[in-house]
Design a protein that fits this description.
Elements lengths: L2 H21 L13 H31 L7 H31 L17 H8 L9 H11 L1 H7 L3 H20 L10 H19 L1 H4 L6 H21 L2 H18 L15 H22 L4 H29 L1 H6 L11
Length: about 350
């Protein structure tokens, strides 16, 4: 992969990471949103848009990188690497956050921040926490990605031909629409969330395998780039405004492709310091932001103007602080760094 293209993907991933962090900086639950409703409304619209676009973009790029220059004989090695970069960090983080919640729930003063949470030292709670991410809800994305990676042998078969890949993407898109209006019975409804997010991943797989020459161009007309940049926001806005599921599903499917095209003509500098720690930031940001927001609301002021200011500042502060922590762990605690999935994004691109 050309260095400039690699830089482009690193920047897109970093921007998507920042969008996801911003989503969880929302603090209307802790500050008195009724005082200044326009601030709460701005937070709601921005975070909902960022949530849909950030997640959809990540799924596309994950599929794109997995199948770029893919050969069937590469499959086993790629899956083996994903065990180290996805499965082990998934279990490690869920376990650590469960233990943290247990400790904090019985620690004087601190336990007040965990009031209302049913935390117990039991086999069932352990399983719910470690396998089903009960106390780490942001890891639903990781669970989806692990399942999609497990399905890559099947995806390999359906995307071997360009036409087959396009047909598969269209069928998943239509299935998502159909299940929205006519939910499946007999327990099959559990696959609905995976169908919703799977279209973007599958389209990324197809594009990485068959269309990477298109998406890695550096001379695309600026008009097309501009349309590609705003289209995900337009489609998301349509859904937020009137609940049009067609718009949302189309955005989920093509969002990552639009971002790749939108950035085609930009000469990106070398990745910034914190880009190498985007996974750590993703894993740790929700708990960090929740604790800061709640502490500020309880100990300082619960005025929504103050909450709005925090919402603007915290994403930048959280990214920087967590990147410094990740750098320290990587340097001084290599075994923990490996378990926690702290590594340069380029090491995950194969």
């Amino acid at each position: 992969m050309d260095r400039q293209v690699r830089n482009r993907i690193c920047w897109i991933r970093a921007i998507l990471c920042f969008m996801v962090v911003t989503v969880h900086a929302r603090n209307t639950d802790w500050f008195r949103a009724d005082q200044v409703p326009w601030i709460a409304q701005c937070e709601d619209i921005l975070t909902r848009s960022f949530a849909y676009i950030g997640v959809a973009g990540f799924f596309f790029i994950s599929g794109y990188l997995f199948f770029r220059n893919f050969k069937p004989e590469d499959l086993i090695n790629k899956l083996r690497r994903r065990i180290h970069t996805l499965v082990i960090p998934f279990l490690f983080w869920n376990l650590m956050i469960y233990l943290l919640y247990l400790i904090c729930s019985v620690t004087p003063v601190i336990k007040l921040l965990f009031a209302g949470k049913d935390i117990s030292l039991s086999v069932q709670d352990f399983i719910d926490a470690v396998i089903f991410y009960k106390y780490n809800p942001v890891f639903w994305f990781m669970e989806h990605l692990i399942i999609f990676m497990a399905l890559t042998p099947l995806i390999d078969l359906v995307t071997r031909k360009r036409a087959g890949g396009i047909i598969a993407v269209i069928l998943v898109f239509l299935l998502g629409i159909r299940m929205y209006y006519h939910p499946l019975g007999h327990g099959l409804h559990v696959i609905y969330p995976y169908v919703l997010s799977g279209g973007g991943f599958l389209f990324g797989c197809h594009c990485g395998r068959h269309e990477h020459a298109l998406f890695e161009q550096t001379h695309i007309p600026w008009g097309i780039c501009a349309i590609s940049a705003v289209l995900p926001f337009i489609l998301t806005g349509i859904f937020i405004h009137n609940g049009n599921i067609y718009a949302l599903q189309l955005m989920r499917t093509i969002c990552g492709a639009c971002l790749m095209i939108a950035a085609a003509n930009i000469h990106f500098p070398a990745p910034a310091f914190w880009f190498r720690y985007t996974f750590f930031i993703y894993a740790a940001h929700q708990l960090t932001l929740s604790l800061i927001n709640k502490c500020c609301a309880v100990l300082i002021c619960d005025n929504m103007y103050f909450g709005g200011l925090l919402f603007c500042v915290l994403p930048f502060a959280a990214v920087w602080i967590l990147a410094l922590i990740a750098s320290f762990i990587e340097t001084h605690m290599p075994p923990v760094s490996s378990l926690a999935g702290i590594s340069h994004p380029q090491k995950k691109s194969s």
